[in-house]
Amino acid sequence: MNHLTDFEIFLLLSVIKIAVVLVITLTAVAYTVLLERKVLGRMQNRWGPSRVGPFGLLQPLADGIKLFLKEDMMPLAVERPLFVLAPIIALGCALISISMVPFGVNYKFHGVDLFQVSDTNIGLLVILGITSIGVYGIALSGWSSNNKYSLFGSLRASAQLISYELALGLSLVGVVMRAGSLRLRDIVHSQSAHGALSWNVFGGLQIIAFFIYLMAAYAETNRTPFDLPEAESELVAGYHTEYSSMKFAMFFMAEYANMITVACVATLMFFGGASSPFGHTFDHVLNHTVFNLLFPVLWFVFKVFSFILLYIWVRGTLPRFRYDQLMSFGWKFLLPVAMANILATALALAYRS
Amino acid sequence: MHLALFLLFGILAVAAALNLLLQRHPINSALSLVVVMISLAVLYWTLGAEFLAAAQVIVYAGAVMVLFIFTVMLLNAGEEERTYGSRIAYIAGIPGALGVLGLISYTIFRNKAAVGMTTTGGDMQTGILSNLMQISHQLFTNLLLPFEATSILILVAILGAVVLARKEL
User: Fold this and answer.
1) What tens digit of pLDDT does each residue of B82-96 get?
2) What ipTM was assigned to the predicted interfaces of this complex?
């Protein structure tokens, strides 16, 4: 690679990184859907998908082909440009935000970080910002469908997203104060001293913030018990009632991609990102560059996978909130507790320094 | 690179602002305003103010404009009728706007030394100095009084909104 200039190496590696992360995310999205159906099936004492391929493992492929080949119906009364734009916004925002996530150690190859698509010093804010743009996808889809159920679904979704974004943002402030930076690498680094003991959720005493984040994240991704925007017993299917074929699939993929992003952020902010829970205790075992690069990625994937499993478990367990309960829970409980947590963290930090 | 982005999004911001005025449906105008906000955020970013860019996206594009669109959706506002403006807009509005623009640019260029200039890319080339630190330092030392006054102003506005809404509840 010596005959390439630094810029060419940067460009080439960036394109490869983007392609790899995109493919892995989309595959993970497809298999999260399968995992959800399987686990939910087991929880409800049935098998789940089991016909396509061994153990139903090819089911995502079959679903994909089905959705691609379906006729793309578009009702006559829709607001056409916005109707087409909405799923693109939703999926685009969901996929862009994963580019900030560092999923391995800080390893530079010719000055290019191999395990993170883009390292900015406001990484966390970029993720929050892009997620907040994603609201437009949902809001516009409901409005442009020209259907009362869609409109109700999207109104509920936007109100819910705006309300819970506050609690979500405020729950992360304590972590940011402890790290003293918004760069995700710095936040991960601030929890890397003693393995699991120095993770923000245990040693950092941010356990309250973690639970606030977890609940707000369920609401942000429109998952049970906060899935009122698509409550099928009340609203047919919510904001994507009028969508079919790939446009529907784009909303579906956006929802699961958001789930993965939220799980990644929870891992980074509270569970030490790609670091091992044992800290540096086992550093001498298998001490080789390849393993040292590979194991952090595996730890990261394992943590994200656990969060996704938790998501599915909650979906299989909890019933849906009523709408006024949802709002008062967000504004009257989560928000004050998040603020109290910020205050307590600030006082503790000031006392210690 | 930064200059190209700056020019591109500068043009995009102006185009979206014109589109805002020319569109007949309120929701299209509101969406054009979103594009203006995001383009402004990219402009801030190319000038090295990355925190300001993120705040612009989160606060304006992500919260304020969502409420705008929310309202338009709830009121189900239809298409507007196209008018050619009132006479007072032509007589007073356009010269007034040009005057304010001229005044602002005159003041800034006059006090170039005091205001200071930035280059595209700003401090990002060095990458060490986080302007989050600089902003918070400024806010909590030199600008503490205006900062607190602004937050009290916003608090008063929130309380006012609650009082107004309370009558209906």
Assistant:
1) 777 677 777 888 889
2) 0.79
| Contact assignment for B61 to A132 by CB distance below 8 Å | yes
Cβ contact, residue pair A120, B50, below 8 Å: yes
Cβ–Cβ gap A129/B61 under 8 Å: yes
Residue identified by tokens 């902010």 is: A269
Amino acid code (one letter) for A10: F
Q: Any CB–CB contact under 8 A between A168 and chain B?
A: no
| CA-closest candidate to residue A213, choices A315, A338, A313, A346 | A338
CATH code assigned to B2-129? 1.20.120.1200
Please provide residue A227's backbone torsions phi and psi, each rounded to the nearest 5 degrees: -95, 35
Tell me the pTM. 0.84
pLDDT per position as a tens digit, A39-62:
888 888 888 888 887 888 888 888
Burial (CB < 10 A; 0-12, 13-18, 19+), residue A258, is: buried
Q: What is the pLDDT of residue A114?
A: 77
Structural domain boundaries of chain A?
67-352
Interface check A139 vs B, CB under 8 A: yes
Domain extent listing, chain B: 2-129, 130-169
The whole-angstrom separation of Cα A230 and Cα B59 is 26
Instruction: Note the Cα A212 to chain centre separation in Å.
Output: 15
Of B146 and A232, the one with more pLDDT: B146
